[in-house]
Amino acid sequence: MGKTDVAIPKRKSLAGKCGIPFEKDREYGEPVFERRENPIPIALEFPNGRRLRMGSAVGYDEYGREIFGNLCRHWTMRPNDAGTESSDLWEGFGRWFVRKEAAARKSPIRAMEQCR
Questions:
Q1: pLDDT score at 97
Q2: Mean pLDDT across 56-76
Q3: Is residue 3 classed exposed, middle or buried when 0-12, 13-18 and 19+ CB atoms within 10 A define those classes?
């Protein structure tokens, strides 16, 4: 039996679904890794020079599929500082991002419950 090539249509972005921020609500940063084998960065560095330190990962979810071209990974991060709230870290298409602070204040993340 011969191998047949089947065209897999690319799916649209999942932005706005499952708690994934819309493009306008994202702030992209360059990841800083402690060790290359660790898939989660210890910090994100932003173009304006700001550096956001990550704490411990307390949750992980994947949305979409790599074969469809819309895979988005989500980590819930707990900062190392006591008394601060957990934050969300996202990676899609090799780019790392967080929700812009202004966008996070406007609406709490409730959309993730729709995907479970």
A1: 93
A2: 88
A3: exposed
Q: How much is the average pLDDT of 8-25?
A: 83
State the pTM of this model. Answer: 0.72
Q: Which two tokens stand for residue 30?
A: 């360059």
Torsion sign, CA atoms 27, 30, 32, 38:
positive
Average pLDDT over residues 15-42: 87
Distances (CA, A) of 19 to 3, 15, 16, 89: 39, 8, 6, 11
> Reading across the β-sheet that carries 51-53, which strands appear in turn?
51-53, 43-45, 26-32, 95-99, 87-92, 72-78, 56-63
On the question of pLDDT at 105 being above 60, the answer is: no
Distances (CA, A) of 78 to 36, 82, 84, 108, 112: 21, 9, 8, 17, 18
The H-or-E segment that residue 56 falls in is strand 56-63
